[in-house]
Each structure stands twice: as structure tokens, then as C-alpha cells.
Amino acid sequence: MINKKKEKIIDTEKLQNENKKIHICNGKSCSIAGTQEILKDWLKEDFKDEEIGYYPCFGKCDTNFALFYDGKAYSAPSAKSLKKIINK
Ligand code: FES
Hints:
The protein is an alpha+beta fold. The chain is 32% helix and 23% strand. The chain has 4 helices and 6 strands. A hairpin with a 4-residue loop joins β1 and β2.
């Protein structure tokens, strides 16, 4: 899948094979910003630990808080914005 804004190629086959419902970015920019653990805490309200996967970079490096859900890459810098994404 290609994220048109950033032209980031995401290996959706790999995502599907991991059998996860949602993926958090564990790329360099998000790792340095330390946003994965914050996202994971917020996601625990709606997903089990085993439903949360990781993937290296979704092309949202400038905003961090990157995740991939339901075929799209997002940046969710607040719990409220994350809820909006997963409740679409
Ligand atoms: S490192 Fe997280 S979106 Fe690029």
C-alpha cells in the first residue's frame, strides 16, 4: 500500500501475516520521540496486547505518534484523536 502524501510503501502482506489489528510505528523518528509507549497505553483501552503489532515507519515521521489501522497510516497525537481513528 502506498501512503500518497509521503509515498511510503507499507508491506501490508507482512502486517496481515502478523495477525494484528493495529500497528504502532517503531521507526527511528517515533522511537526518538518516545511516542510508542504513549500510543500503546491509549490503545490498551480498546485492544488486547496480542492485537497490537509494530512496524518500522509509516511515513508520519514529522508528526510521530504514527500507527496503521484498517488499511491507513495515521498520526494520533492525543487520546481523543486516536479514538476518532479507531471508531470510524
Ligand atoms: S519513524 Fe514513525 S512514522 Fe516514520
